Amino acid sequence: MGGLRCPRCPRCPHVPVGRWLFRDGLLPEDIHVVGFARSPLTVELIRERTLPHLKASPEDSPLLERFFSRQRFVQGHYGDEAPFRRLEAALRELPGGAAAHRLFYLALRGALRHRHPAHPEHCMGQGWNRIIVEKPFGRDLASSDALSAHLSGLFHEEQIYRIDHYLGKEMVQNLMVLRFGNRIFGPIWNRDNVACVVVTFKEPFGTEGRGGYFDDFGIIRDVMQNHSCRCSAWWPWRKPASHQPDDVRDEKVKVLKCISPVVPEDVVLGQYVGNPEGPPEAHKGYLDDPTVPPGSTTATFAAAILHVANERWDGVPFVLRCGKALNERKAEVRLQFRDVPGDIFGHQCKRNELVMMTKKPGLFLSPEESELDLTYGNRYKDVKLPDAYERLILDVFCGNQMHFVRSDELREAWRIFTPLLHNIEARAERPIPYVFGRYYGPGPPEADELLKRAGFLYEGTYRWVNPHKL
């Protein structure tokens, strides 16, 4: 396995994920990892930086020794030919040489994207060659198309794995089994029964010194256009012909093609400010981050309404909400059903909401019978839930592209959000302030008003009781 990656933050998940897969015997026994970056690094330096974050026990020491002994490092600039010839020479020295399979992991910041490997033909092996590409996949439709065109000149689409780690999360992967493995949901999964769908991603922390990077993209590019939009596409789609990767991705693209571009009137933007009454990490607002440009108007929270113009979902708003510095960590999709017609209870009945057969936790698509209780910590007490990156990287080794972003899916997602992004940048208006961690709902109160306008009714009267603790 040859790697083209930028060793950024030592907490970057890829070294721990590689170790987990190696520990669990899910990687080929003769695997080797070759790092490539501009920085003057060594395997020993990478080891020192990552060890504190590997959560390894003393019993793991022999395995760690084996894992790091399989690593090499080559320094070089991405646009030069000579470093790639050195990389190829390093790869040929490994067992298998030119006949080995090669997996390239490209993790570059956005500014470097169009200076990324210009000479990878020197590194292609005689086995299969695959490349993992991390977001950002451009800044708008035009830049994304340019990046896709560049990649397609180097790799075939079946070799490209655009990774979105949210698509590897257990609950997201559970949605297909939930939707198409349970007869009860088919008849009610349409505009006649569903009032609205709300997709929420909440983070309880701010930019934590990474504001300079975040400020280049903002919450819409960083979360909404990719994580939120792709997760929402799992809900209104029709049953695919099979659960083969391209059949699944074909249906997601059909849904995205039915979504109109988002308009400013259907959007609320916010930016967090410090909370002097909160814990120390909440005292500073976004603009207090020294890496953020003074007076930045970049949003750290966004709520937007999407409209799916097809026969099954026309008129049902899909609300996406995501933000930083909120009151809790949560990733949630909520279906709210319409009121029961012919009410005989004097409006005392609250709207039904779907908080949802389940997929058995693990790395494979294995439906399992279960009560309607998806509290994983209770139902699967002794099961290790795989990390999202762990699952997705294993999928790359297996050649399974189901949970990776295809070029046409990427293009449709950017089509939906590019006009809005250009409008926001042209206006440069200051987002609505909200206090770090204080507000119970996601973002500023104006986001609640947007939800009401979309037809969502928040009752606030139901309190879930854990049946396992009664």
UniProtKB/TrEMBL annotation:
<dbReference type="GO" id="GO:0004345">
    <property type="term" value="F:glucose-6-phosphate dehydrogenase activity"/>
</dbReference>
<comment type="pathway">
    <text>Carbohydrate degradation; pentose phosphate pathway; D-ribulose 5-phosphate from D-glucose 6-phosphate (oxidative stage): step 1/3.</text>
</comment>
<comment type="similarity">
    <text>Belongs to the glucose-6-phosphate dehydrogenase family.</text>
</comment>
<dbReference type="InterPro" id="IPR022674">
    <property type="entry name" value="G6P_DH_NAD-bd"/>
</dbReference>
<dbReference type="InterPro" id="IPR022675">
    <property type="entry name" value="G6P_DH_C"/>
</dbReference>
<dbReference type="GO" id="GO:0005829">
    <property type="term" value="C:cytosol"/>
</dbReference>
<feature type="domain" description="Glucose-6-phosphate dehydrogenase NAD-binding">
    <location>
        <begin position="20"/>
        <end position="174"/>
    </location>
</feature>
<keyword id="KW-0313">Glucose metabolism</keyword>
<comment type="function">
    <text>Catalyzes the rate-limiting step of the oxidative pentose-phosphate pathway, which represents a route for the dissimilation of carbohydrates besides glycolysis.</text>
</comment>
<dbReference type="GO" id="GO:0006006">
    <property type="term" value="P:glucose metabolic process"/>
</dbReference>
<keyword id="KW-0560">Oxidoreductase</keyword>
<feature type="domain" description="Glucose-6-phosphate dehydrogenase C-terminal">
    <location>
        <begin position="176"/>
        <end position="456"/>
    </location>
</feature>
<dbReference type="InterPro" id="IPR019796">
    <property type="entry name" value="G6P_DH_AS"/>
</dbReference>
<dbReference type="GO" id="GO:0050661">
    <property type="term" value="F:NADP binding"/>
</dbReference>
<protein>
    <recommendedName>
        <fullName>Glucose-6-phosphate 1-dehydrogenase</fullName>
        <ecNumber>1.1.1.49</ecNumber>
    </recommendedName>
</protein>
<keyword id="KW-0119">Carbohydrate metabolism</keyword>
<dbReference type="InterPro" id="IPR001282">
    <property type="entry name" value="G6P_DH"/>
</dbReference>
<dbReference type="Pfam" id="PF00479">
    <property type="entry name" value="G6PD_N"/>
</dbReference>
<dbReference type="GO" id="GO:0009051">
    <property type="term" value="P:pentose-phosphate shunt, oxidative branch"/>
</dbReference>
<dbReference type="InterPro" id="IPR036291">
    <property type="entry name" value="NAD(P)-bd_dom_sf"/>
</dbReference>
<keyword id="KW-0521">NADP</keyword>
<dbReference type="Pfam" id="PF02781">
    <property type="entry name" value="G6PD_C"/>
</dbReference>
